[in-house]
Write a structure and sequence with these properties.
The chain is mainly alpha-helical. Helix content is 69%, strand content 1%. Helix 4 runs antiparallel to helix 5 (74-91) and helix 4 (54-66) runs antiparallel to helix 17.
Length: 304
């Protein structure tokens, strides 16, 4: 089978898909010149023009492995990114992490106000499901319903929101490694897992298929690796690269982390081990899996 991954470098893939998802989001987010304009402006401020776009990149790279046309994945990738953007807006609020900077610029509640930031999160979450539910030529209603269900499970109390609740309750406490991993498999990992579930649904492949088992094993490893690397960067990352106000923010808030539990050197070794396990999971694919491999390396080797 001819593979786009075989003829396109990862740098080209990354640039083109980031540009693609930016255009898709631009088109799908409500314009700032229609009522309520300030809310729509804040939604666009929080969603456009920044970020690594790791989750949409995973959607598109997973689609390459499965031979799914990108047009079938645009809304899924956009919906997933909207849910991620909403979670960041709410995480930054004074009641949660109380951050002033996100991606090197003022957080939503600083650029607008706290009430608007709360509504931005509410609106982005709701709009994500509207985007995912609207008809897509080439996908059946059953496939789209399955996508909606996957995203709802990933975002809810048994997924990302639940992980955030556990994280808030853990402040000032030490967690054993299994509990810390479970927290982050929900808080960070479930949306990353969903990024591979969505193209699997578009390919009409069930969870018991060999492709699903391999891709979801990969997703679970990189979801955990993403958080381990986040903890490492919180401790030693250059704030000019991370876009955060200071180093050691998690430590100062007494939040449990892989660095506080394992130490810096062991956390770095753990991230590398997770990377190797993720790459092993992609063994069924040749060059068509190269962009997923590169994304796994990017997650572990990134400096922001």
């Amino acid at each position: 089978m001819h593979s786009a991954a075989a003829t396109e470098s990862f740098a080209e893939f990354r640039q083109r898909r980031v540009e693609r998802i930016e255009k898709v989001l631009e088109a799908l987010l409500p314009p700032a010149d229609i009522l309520p304009g300030r809310l729509h402006e804040a939604m666009r401020y929080s969603s456009l023009g920044g970020g690594k776009r790791v989750r949409p990149l995973l959607v598109y790279a997973g689609g390459q492995c499965l031979g799914v046309a990108e047009e079938l994945l645009d809304r899924a990738a956009a919906a997933l990114e909207m849910v991620h953007a909403y979670s960041l807006v709410h995480d930054d609020l004074p009641a949660m992490d109380n951050d002033d900077l996100r991606r090197g610029r003022p957080t939503c509640h600083k650029a607008f106000d706290e009430a608007t930031a709360i509504l931005v999160g509410d609106a982005l979450l709701t709009h994500a499901f509207q985007v995912l539910a609207e008809p897509v030529a080439g996908l059946s209603s059953a496939q789209q319903l399955a996508m909606v269900l996957d995203l709802a499970r990933a975002a809810g109390s048994r997924g990302m929101v639940g992980g955030q609740a556990i994280d808030l309750a853990a402040v000032g406490h030490e967690l054993a490694q299994p509990a810390l991993e479970q927290m982050h498999l929900q808080k960070t990992g479930m949306l990353i897992r969903c990024a591979l579930q969505l193209p699997l649904q578009a390919a009409a492949l069930g969870p018991d298929s060999a492709e699903a088992r391999a891709l979801l094993a990969y997703a679970d490893r990189i979801g955990l690796a993403f958080q381990v690397q986040d903890d490492i960067l919180d401790e030693i990352g250059d704030i000019r690269e991370t876009g955060k106000a200071r180093q050691g923010a998690d430590r100062s808030r007494q939040k449990p982390s892989f660095v506080s539990l394992l130490g810096l050197a062991e956390a770095q070794r753990y991230a590398r081990r997770l990377l190797e396990e993720a790459l092993d999971a992609l063994a069924p694919w040749g060059s068509e899996g190269d962009h997923l491999r590169a994304l796994a390396r990017l997650i572990v080797e990134r400096n922001r």
